[in-house]
Amino acid sequence: MSLFGFSLKPRRAKTAQTAKDRLQLLLAHERAGGSGAADFLPQLQNDILEVIRKYVTVADEDVEIRLQRDNAVSSLEINIEMPADSGKKPRS
Amino acid sequence: MSLFGFSLKPRRAKTAQTAKDRLQLLLAHERAGGSGAADFLPQLQNDILEVIRKYVTVADEDVEIRLQRDNAVSSLEINIEMPADSGKKPRS
């Protein structure tokens, strides 16, 4: 399954018999100046997770986060596995 | 420049002389049940944009959003261009 050229690779079969939904988020921040300034991804990561939790129930142990930073590009990858149909009503 | 197998492709040179930062976000939700239920990406899209605006100044016209949905996978792509060094202090 390939979307936009990035692929949802099969996750480890931790709970092989349980149907799982998967949420994959990739975020890249490319800085023209290459200054290394304004690197807000570590904070943004928490905010995004909080926002996702408005919609689905996510256990901490089912979240996998990778953060990479160099001078010109910072990138954030968040992989979440959750029981199928774990959706919930968003808070208003 | 390729990260995780997805590539930050060069954007249109709308303001060719101005250094631009770019933020690219890709999000895919794969539903095990394939039911089409719990498709919260349209709402999540607004929440994520709001969260990003805590950290950087983003003009509406610099945001490009693509949302795709089928039975098993919904995906969201957000591309943002912003002036270099448009970072701001996050609200507490």
Automatic annotation (TrEMBL), chains A, B:
It comes from the Bacteria. Keywords: Cell cycle, Cell division. NCBIfam families: minE, PRK00296.1. InterPro entries: MinE, MinE_sf. This is Cell division topological specificity factor. SUPFAM superfamilies: Cell division protein MinE topological specificity domain. One of its GO terms (biological process) is cell division. Signal peptide: none annotated. Belongs to the MinE family. Prevents the cell division inhibition by proteins MinC and MinD at internal division sites while permitting inhibition at polar sites. This ensures cell division at the proper site by restricting the formation of a division septum at the midpoint of the long axis of the cell. Pfam families: MinE.
